[in-house]
Structures are given as C-alpha cells and as structure tokens.
Amino acid sequence: MSDCLFCKIIGGEIPSTKVYEDELVYAFRDIAPMAPTHILVVPKTHIQDVNGITAENSAVVAHIFEVIPKLAAQEGLTGGYRVVSNCGADAGQTVPHLHFHILGGKQLCLEMA
Ligand code: 5GP
Ligand code: ZN
C-alpha cells in the first residue's frame, strides 16, 4: 500500500534499523523502544491487523512465529520476552500494517490492560 508507513519502511523509502529480512518478512528496531530490545516483525505483504489474517495469507504469520524465536536468541533474550500485536483503536494500534512487537531485555510489567 503506497501510503502505509510500514510498507514504505519495507520498501526502503523510509529508513529503519533492519534486524532481519527474508522473502516474506522484515524486522526492524522500534523507533521509540519500550524495552532494551524492542523489535517489530512485519509481513512484507500489506495485512491491516490480526483481523486481516485469513486462510489465504496465514502462512506468513506462521513464518513470523518461526522467525521470532531466532531473533530473540540473536538478541540474547535468554530470560524470556513478550510478543504483542495491537489490533484496532482500543488496543492502541497506531500503524495499520500487521506487526508483532518483540519486547525483552528487562523484567516486563505484568499488567495486560
Ligand atoms: P502499534 O502502536 O501500532 O502497536 O505499534 C506501532 C509501533 O511503531 C510503535 O511502537 C512506534 O514506536 C513504532 N513506529 C512508528 N513509526 C515508526 C518509524 O517510523 N520507524 C520505526 N522504526 N518505528 C516506528
Ligand atoms: Zn503496509
């Protein structure tokens, strides 16, 4: 999508600190980290949010969850980490391109809501 921030990051139109890339996914450091490690993992295809996942496109989501543990290991998150995907306004989603936050490197707050 031409006016999507994360599509522009994937396309290199907007710079980012790349952590990992393959044919399906792109991972980069969050611009406003909420933990010592804060990585965003996104599908290269534009999917709006979790509600946009279908039988036709879910293979990329499975792939993302294969990539996530590898990135966590690469980042040295041996003590654990959190994976978050905000979906919609009530969850505070600010970028309407499906993304998974990897947060770690400290004892994370347990509050969920
Ligand atoms: P959301 O709030 O939609 O779950 O997460 C969007 C995330 O994207 C936020 O954590 C925000 O800091 C991050 N973000 C927004 N704009 C940019 C940007 O231009 N570059 C990078 N690297 N991260 C961004
Ligand atoms: Zn997009």
SSE order and pairing:
Elements: H1 5-10, E1 18-21, E2 25-29, E3 37-43, H2 58-74, E4 81-84, E5 100-104
Antiparallel strand pairs: 1-2, 2-3, 3-5, 4-5
Bound molecules: guanosine-5'-monophosphate and zinc ion.
What would you note in describing this structure?
It is a single chain. This protein is of the alpha+beta class. It has two helices and five strands, in the order αβββαββ. The chain has helices spanning 5-10, 58-74, and strands spanning 18-21, 25-29, 37-43, 81-84, 100-104. A five-stranded antiparallel β-sheet has the order 1-2-3-5-4, covered by helices on one side. A hairpin with a 3-residue loop joins strand 1 (18-21) and strand 2. The chain starts with a helix and ends in a 9-residue tail after the last strand. The mean pLDDT is 97. Bound molecules: guanosine-5'-monophosphate and zinc ion. Zinc ion binds next to helix 1.
Approximately how much beta-strand content do the residues carry?
15-25%
Output the structural class.
alpha+beta
Distance between the termini: 31 Å
The number of helical elements comes to 2
Percentage of residues assigned to helices: 10-25%
Radius of gyration: 14 Å
What shape does the CA trace take? globular
Tally the beta strands.
5
Would you list the SSEs in sequence order as H and E? HEEEHEE
For the largest beta-sheet, the strand count, sense and barrel status come to: 5 strands, antiparallel
Ligands, deduplicated: guanosine-5'-monophosphate, zinc ion
